Structure formats: C-alpha cells, structure tokens
Amino acid sequence: MAGPSPSPHKPRRKAKQRAGNATGSLSSASSVETSVRTPSFPLAAFLWPARGSVSQWELLPLILMTAGLFRWAAGLWGYSGFEKPPMFGDYEAQRHWMEITTQLPISQWYFHDLQWWGLDYPPLTAYHSWLCGKVGSLIDPSWFALFSSRGIHDPTLKIFMRATVVVSEYLIYVPAVVVFVRRFSKLNGVASWPASVALVAILMQPATILIDHVHFQYNTVMLGFVVASMSSMLAGRNLWSAVFFVAALGFKQMALYYALSVFAYLLGSCVFPRINIPRLVSIAAITVASFVILLLPLVVGALYDARRGIDSRPDLDGPRPPLPLFQGLAEYLDTEAFYYPVVEQLVQMVHRVFPFARGLFEDKVANFWCALNVVVKIKNYPPKLLQRGALIATLASILPPNLVLFLRPRKTLLPLAFATTAWGFFLFSYQVHEKSVLLPLMPMTLLLAGNQGLSKNTRAWVGFANILGCWTMFPLLQRVDLVVPYTVLTLLWAYLLGLPPTSISAYTQDGSRSLSQWATLFVHGAFYLAMALWHVLAMSLAPPPDKPDLWVVANVGVGAAGFSLCYLWCLWRLMLEGETLPASWVGRAKTKTQ
Amino acid sequence: MGDIYPSLLQCAIVAAAFKVLLFPAYRSTDFEVHRNWLAITHSLPLWEWYYEKTSEWTLDYPPFFAYFEWVLSHVARLADPAMLKVYNLEYDSWQTIYFQRLTVIIMELLLVYALQMFVDSAQGASKRAAQAAAISILLSPGLLIIDHIHFQYNGCMYGILIASLVLARQKSSLLLSGLVFAALLCMKHIYLYLAPAYFVFLLRAYCLSPKSIFRIQFLNCLKLGGGIAAILGTAFGPFALKGQIPQIMSRLFPFSRGLCHAYWAPNVWAMYSFVDRVLILVAPRIGLPVKEGALQSVTRGLVGDTAFAVLPDITPRMCFALTLVFQAIPLLKLFFQPTWDNFIGTVTLCGFASFLFGWHVHEKAVLLVIIPFSLIALKDRRHLSAFRPLAVAGHVSLFPLLFTPAEFPIKTVYTVLWLILFLMVFDRLAPASSRARFFLFDRFSTLYITVSIPLIVYCSLMHGVVFGKSYEFLPLMFTSSYSAIGVVGSWVGFMVVYFTS
C-alpha cells in the first residue's frame, strides 16, 4: 500500500520526515477509524473520548496501569503445578533455577541434578534467575534454600514470583511494544489514536497473560527482546537489532523461530538496493560480540571454578565422563588442558538447551505432525527419517516468506514475515510445545498497529489466530484448574475487539459483502462453531474408554488446520504487500480485500 | 445527538471480567457473615432468624435483606448445599466462593440500571458529564474494594439509592422515589442517615403545595403514608406478630459498640483521638491530668471501645446531637428551595454529618457521601473542587481494609488509576461556575492530593521496614487522620458551595 518503500537504510532524521509525509498523504485512507462517527468495536469505544485532544502521555500511563491490573488479578489464580507433587510444574522449574543459580557455583548450573528440573534454558535465563533469586533471598532465604525448598508453595513466595514476572515484563516487553507500536504506526501512516487502540489490544492479548502470569513462565522477556529487535530494525538501527536478538536467543532458544527472518532482513538490507559489505561485516561482528558477552560469565566462571578446584559434577567420582554431544571432538582435545572445562561447560549447555534426543513431539500439540499422527501413526517410523522430514517440511514452509523478506527488505513487512516464519516453525518443526504458539501470535498481533490494522479483515484474522491459540492451550490450562481465567481473558479480548463469540461485526460490512468476506465468515465461522462445540462436548461427555485422548486429539486437529490457515493468510499478505505476486493476481486480490 | 462512548454496559462488562478474575482474592469475615445468613434464612423458620446465634456473625440487617438472602439461598442450593448448613462455620468451598462472588457481580446490574436512569434523566450538554459521573460510580474503587474483594452487597443497594434519587427528579415519580427509599431502608438501615433529607424533601415537594407551605396535599400524604406503611408492614409485619421487634432492634442498633470502629473511620473522632494521643505526650509538661486506665488502649490501637486519656469522653448522645445539628442546617435550605440539585446536596450533607459525627462509624460508610456527591460533582467547577479532596481521602481511607500483600497492588494501582482518570475527565467536563471560586480552596486540594503520595508510601512500605510489626496503629492513625482532614475539608467546602449557590 505505502507505495514503493525507499531504501531501507537512511539517516534517522530523514526517516522521521518520511513518516510525517506518509501521515499526510495517507490520512484519508488510514484514518477511517478516527473519522467514523461511532466506534466499530468496544475497545475503540473505551478510547473514544481520547480521540484528538488527549496526548499520548496522558493515555499511556492509564493503558499500562489497566494492563498491569489485569495481569496481577489473573495472577491471583493458581500456577502450573500448584500442590501437584511429585514434580510440580513450570513454576517449580523457574523457582528451582533461582535456587541453583544462587546456591551453586556457576560451573555446576547446567549439571546439577538434571532429573529435578535441570536448567535447560540458555544463559541469560540463568542470569535472570540468579538476579531474581538474589532479590528474593533478601526477603526470605528459605524460598531458595538448596534442596529443602523444592516444591515449596509459600503464598508470599507466589506473590514474589508473580511480581518478578510483572516487573520483567514491564522492563522489557512493555517498553519494547510501546516503542514498536509508535514506530510501526508512524511508518504506516496510522494516526496516534488507532495506534493506542492497537497497543491496548496487543497488551491485553490473552495467550501471553495466561501463559506468563497465570500458568507461569517468562516468555514475555524473550518476546520483548524480539520486539525490541524488530523495533530497532524499524528505526534503522540494525546493529542494535542484532544485539537484542542475541539477547532473545540467549534467554530462550525458542527465539530461533524468528532467526531466519532476522537473518533474511539483515542480509537483505546489506544487499539491496546495493551491496554494502561494511554493514554486513559490522552486523556479523556485533552478533559475535554479543554472543561472546552472553557466554562470558559462563566461560569465566568455568575457568575460575576449575582453578579453585570446584568440579562441575561433584556427585561423580572417577574419570571425566565423555561429552554428551560432539563426541568426536574428544579425540582432538586434551581433557586435562586448562580450556577443557570451558568446552565441557559449553557443550553441556548446548546439550541441555537443544534436546535432540527427544521425539518429534512430546505432548499433544496443534501442529502438523501431531495432527498427522491421528491419521498415520508416524511415531512408528524411524526417528532419523522423521527428523529429516521435519527439517525439510520446516525449510519448505519458512523459505518463501524469508525469500520475500530478503528480496524486499522493507520495514513494513517485518511483522508479517516474522509471523509467517514462526507459523512455519510451529507447524512443521521438531519438538514443539503448545505454549510455542505465543511466538507466531506475537508478530501477528502486532499487525493491529499497522496499515489498516484495525480494519475488519485484519482484526478478524488476528483475532481468529489468537482465540484459536488460546483454545489449543485449554487442555494445558484445564489440567491446572485455570478454566475461569482462560474463559474470562479470552472472552474479554474477543469482546474488546468485536470478535466471535461475542459479535460477528468483524465479518459484516454496511452495504455489500464481497466474496472474500463471505469466504472468511464461512471458514472462521466453522472454526468458531467447532471450538464452541468442542467445549460443550468436552465439558459434558467423557471420552470413550478406548480413546481417552479423543477430546485432546480433536483439539489438536482443529487447531492445526486453523493454524495452517493463519500461516497461509500471513504468507499471502506478505507476498501481496511485498509485491512479489504477478500483477494480474494482485489486481484481483485488491478487489477482493477492499 | 449521538450516543456517548463508552456506554455503561460496556464498562460493566469489562469491569465484570476484572471482578471475576478477583474471585480468589482475599475476603474478609463479611464473606462468612453472608454465608451464615444464607444458611440461617435457608434452614430456619422465619421466627428464628433474629434469634439464631450459632455463629458470632448474627443476622443484623433488616428483614428485606434477610428475604433477599433467602431468595439467594434457593439458588445457592444448586451450587453447593453444604454452604447452607448453619453449623458449617467458615465453610468456603470453591463453589461457595464462585456463587457468592458471582451474586455480588450480578446484583450490581441494579446499579448499572440505576446509573443508566441517571444518565437518561440528564439533559443536553450535561449528559456527557452525567455519563462520566455514572461511569465513575460504576468503576468506583470503593465498591471494588468493599464489594468484590472485602465482600459485601453495597453495589446493588447503592443502585437502589441512586434509582430513588433519580426518581425524585420528576414530579410524577416522587411517590415512587419515597417508596423505593423506604424499601432500601428495610434492606440496610445505614441509609437512615440520609432519611432526614428524604423526609424534608418529600414533605415539601410532595405533601405540601408548591405554592404555600400551609396548604397540605392530603391525597399525596395518604398515598405516601399508606405506601410506606405497606412496605414496613411487609418487612417487619411477620416479626411484629410474634413480638420480635425489640429483638430485631437490639440486633440492628448495637449501641454497646465503641465510638470508633476497629479501623478508624476518617471523621472528627479520628482527629479527636489523634489529638488525644498527641496530648498524652504533651500533657505532663503542661500539667493536664492523664487518665491511667486509658493509656492501655493507646498501645493496643485497634480497640473497639476507645477511651480518651486527656480529652473528655464522648457519649452516643453527644454524637447524635452533633449529627442532628449539622444535618438540620442544610435541611432548612432544602425546605425553602426544594429543587433536585438541593435535594442531592442535602443528601450528601446528611451523609457527611453522620459520617463525621456519628457513633461507631465504619469507614465503609464513606460511600454514603461519595456516591450522592458524585451525582452533582460535575455541576460546576466549585462543586468539583469540593469533591476532589473527598475522592482522594475517601478512597485512601479504605486502604486499611485490605492488608494482604497480594491485594496491595490492586487496591493502590486501581485507586490511582481511577483518581487520575476521573479527576482528569471531570476537570475537562465541569463547566465554569457563575460565581468566583473561593479563596485558596483549590490550593488546599492540590496540596492535599500531593501529600497522599508520601503517606501511602510510608503506611504501606516504610512503616513495615522501620518498625516491623510494632506500632501497628501508627499507619492506621496517620491514614485516618489524613483522610479525616480531606473529608472535613471537603465538607466545609461543600457547605460553602451549597449555601452560596
């Protein structure tokens, strides 16, 4: 829409001016939301009085406080593994990491009693746990006492843990999203009022609140670094974007879902419109430097501990065990050399972070493989074949979007490309968890801040993906008695954005309804009906005894189909906006989407 | 003209979502009180309701509320029959919590309806202001803290009160207004504090001719009197037949309680106690006698029966007299100018007088002032500047109701959000007054609001760090003395506004 985008790299001041121009020239097209006389969905109604005269700085604190209140209130509910011995859940895992990082020398972190929630996230999570654990120990040291604190469910500890999630999110994710929304909406010529509406919608996204603040995890820290990375790309600060992305990877390996898009964009911006070798070199250097800084505490710690004579595995006697991975390496290395503890430490970290030995999928998750498993028992195939199949399918699904991004490294395409790539990973890659759906949902929801972001079409698709995403996590939430927060937060978000099941206004238009709108209504309607029906059935009927997983499997099947549609929609939009489609198609598509 | 957004219903839906999320939050003994009443009304015959005392939380609301609990109990049976056993003390299964909390949210629809009536009754340019005031009441942190966390049914009862106040706006529905208020009195007798305003207003506007106060409209008197008698008869009749009225009265008006409630309500008696505490330190130097017996109660702080060490003791009779005197002043003006605005002003001032001078006033009663005041706070800027300190003080004074760490962020952030949002919105919506603003009052309210920040920080964080668990009464005393200044300031300011407009 925005016409051919200028070259992706320009001095910052000019970029600002460009955004200003865009606002002027596009105001007629994109300020539909501000010029209409009645708000078209409830969230717009809530911000209705703030149109025009109210400044961002009056509105922003109110938005952040409201979002915070909902998060904290949701956190009053139980967390995963609450009073569920013997292993408890994610909450215990995070608490346990605070325990081991504060109580053990750094060289033992990745080795300590791996059977009890051994640390399996990258180092930044470990440092974050250390910081939280240190602060928490000031309040009550017994929360993080070695061994004796396992499975503790002190109510004050719960408040502290909830507070760490909220504080981490408000330090990283929330500022990143606020800045991103400002930059992205300006880039697309969206006025500040619709951008505020989009900001509320993004912050109230039910899936993130449910997983982080209710079920318990720190996904928003990783997601926040990714948003910060995208936001830096928008600002043209490619070096910062590399730094932030390394931080995201260093916090949670799941950020790899986006890695190819980051790579494609950064590479693309070094190649088009003309090849820029110094930029490529500096990005590469900064990336390497960031990784070095990320690993430095671990490396220095390993060396220091080795010198002090602290073994990374005090529980083992006798000769050093072989490396868990890259065993061939051992032939070239001297196990007594001074650098060996470092190699051992890093290999162990990689081994913990990337569990290659596990199966194609663990639990029931709404991706392609798990859905396929219903039809063909693919678990019976040799794992090597499955791994190769997953690799090929993933590559096939993520190459097209990243090719578009590489050839057209435009800032406006970033959320679409990130979303498509993450959907590809979620659907086809190896070892997917149902919570991973947060990764494609995040950039897709950011579309709300873009051009025509609050239009019915975009709202319908973003809403569909989010509600379907929450719905596929229902079995996970139900297991820990979180049905009420699930219902409330999902319905609230659907209500705010005027989406089914509370309203079908996103699918209707005054006047004539186009073919594509009918098609969307029909397809989405079928999915919403299926979800509602599933809830009714799962609530009222027990599954037949010979198929105890029937409801979960049905959930997976519907979810995988819906997510595939989301993937296709994102890919379609990306190609459309990236102007990579033949002109004849585009003409037809334009009439369709109008 | 188009509708004003957001609508009340939209706000109610989002607020309800938030309130459902608060289900697992802290709940006070009032939760058990109401469960016990469900059990009493469900499992005992009518005649034993006001005699039953298995639980210490005996039924001490008037009969309509008991009937209301009786109706609820029939639904409660479907949720969890175990909560309806009188001996099942402190019973709080998840079903019980869901049921009781949900009834509060559902009953609050009455408030939404009444507020919509209020908005609809406003005309022209003031409609936008009415909508803002209505939303501010609907989202009031007071109702959130008291009803949805602490646990009570104020929302629906204030809904009835507002409905009655709005009905008084039309000449044709004056009778209904009086009857609705009578019914409200039979639900919760705290509204007796507002009754003088109703009495004077209905007497003047309904029972006496608008032309002359010496011409009595007998038909109207008959209708009103008969209606009220019928309502009182329905409420108390069955009990009167068995001669249980004295027992009910002893339950409804327990005069054996002390001057100040456990947490001090921010009224003149809180200031009085504060001065007394200060005098204990000063008195020996200036030669005033200190009563030894009262000193014990100083350190306890959280006492029911406050004894004063230096200042003279206060009797219920003195409280009663002071309340009446300060209610009578605005009533006089209402009698001679029975307009709706004066009526709401008088209701507010009656609330003020009883809150400030009443015996054993609970800090929750501050809503009795805030809610009627909200209806006219946006009349002009002078009204608003009197309302502002009350909005801050009234809500801050409710903070001690919730003392658990998990609810701390909710009560503070929600209240701060509400204050920023509505004081900002009110500021834009309140029209300028035709009269000059009075000297320095705006400065007072700005200074006052600023002081609240260090106060909240001290009471909620610093005190615990510095003193730990000792001197627990200090933050309570600071909070209530601070709030008392705001409430008294607001009262004085509004008195001036009321008599000069």
Automatic annotation (TrEMBL), chain A:
GO cellular component term, pick one: endoplasmic reticulum membrane
InterPro entries for the chain: Glyco_trans_ALG6/ALG8
Transmembrane segments: 159-181, 193-211, 223-249, 255-273, 280-304, 413-431, 483-506, 518-538, 550-572
UniProt keyword list: Endoplasmic reticulum, Glycosyltransferase, Membrane, Transferase, Transmembrane, Transmembrane helix
Principal location class: endoplasmic reticulum
Subcellular localization(s) per the UniProt record: Endoplasmic reticulum membrane
Pathway assignment: Protein modification; protein glycosylation
Segments for region (Disordered): 1-31
Domain of life assignment: Eukaryota
Single GO MF annotation: dolichyl pyrophosphate Man9GlcNAc2 alpha-1,3-glucosyltransferase activity
Listed EC numbers: 2.4.1.-
Protein name: Alpha-1,3-glucosyltransferase
Species, as recorded: Canariomyces notabilis
UniProtKB/TrEMBL annotation, chain B:
CC per GO annotation: endoplasmic reticulum membrane
Compartments in which it is found: Endoplasmic reticulum membrane
Catalysed transformations (reactions): an alpha-D-Glc-(1->3)-alpha-D-Man-(1->2)-alpha-D-Man-(1->2)-alpha-D-Man-(1->3)-[alpha-D-Man-(1->2)-alpha-D-Man-(1->3)-[alpha-D-Man-(1->2)-alpha-D-Man-(1->6)]-alpha-D-Man-(1->6)]-beta-D-Man-(1->4)-beta-D-GlcNAc-(1->4)-alpha-D-GlcNAc-diphospho-di-trans,poly-cis-dolichol + a di-trans,poly-cis-dolichyl beta-D-glucosyl phosphate = an alpha-D-Glc-(1->3)-alpha-D-Glc-(1->3)-alpha-D-Man-(1->2)-alpha-D-Man-(1->2)-alpha-D-Man-(1->3)-[alpha-D-Man-(1->2)-alpha-D-Man-(1->3)-[alpha-D-Man-(1->2)-alpha-D-Man-(1->6)]-alpha-D-Man-(1->6)]-beta-D-Man-(1->4)-beta-D-GlcNAc-(1->4)-alpha-D-GlcNAc-diphospho-di-trans,poly-cis-dolichol + a di-trans,poly-cis-dolichyl phosphate + H(+)
Transmembrane segments annotated in the record for this chain: 7-26, 97-116, 128-145, 151-168, 175-194, 214-241, 318-336, 408-426, 447-467, 473-499
GO molecular function: dolichyl pyrophosphate Glc1Man9GlcNAc2 alpha-1,3-glucosyltransferase activity
Membrane topology according to the record: Multi-pass membrane protein
An individual GO BP term: protein N-linked glycosylation
UniProt-listed InterPro entries: Glyco_trans_ALG6/ALG8
A UniProt-annotated Pfam family: Alg6_Alg8
Main location (coarse class): endoplasmic reticulum
EC number(s) reported in the record: 2.4.1.-
Keywords for this protein: Endoplasmic reticulum, Glycosyltransferase, Membrane, Transferase, Transmembrane, Transmembrane helix
Pathway in which this enzyme or protein is active: Protein modification; protein glycosylation
Domain of life of the native organism: Eukaryota
Task performed by this protein: Dolichyl pyrophosphate Glc1Man9GlcNAc2 alpha-1,3-glucosyltransferase that operates in the biosynthetic pathway of dolichol-linked oligosaccharides, the glycan precursors employed in protein asparagine (N)-glycosylation. The assembly of dolichol-linked oligosaccharides begins on the cytosolic side of the endoplasmic reticulum membrane and finishes in its lumen. The sequential addition of sugars to dolichol pyrophosphate produces dolichol-linked oligosaccharides containing fourteen sugars, including two GlcNAcs, nine mannoses and three glucoses.
Family label: Belongs to the ALG6/ALG8 glucosyltransferase family.
PANTHER family per record: DOLICHYL GLYCOSYLTRANSFERASE, DOLICHYL PYROPHOSPHATE GLC1MAN9GLCNAC2 ALPHA-1,3-GLUCOSYLTRANSFERASE-RELATED
Name of the protein: Alpha-1,3-glucosyltransferase
Organism expressing this protein natively: Canariomyces notabilis
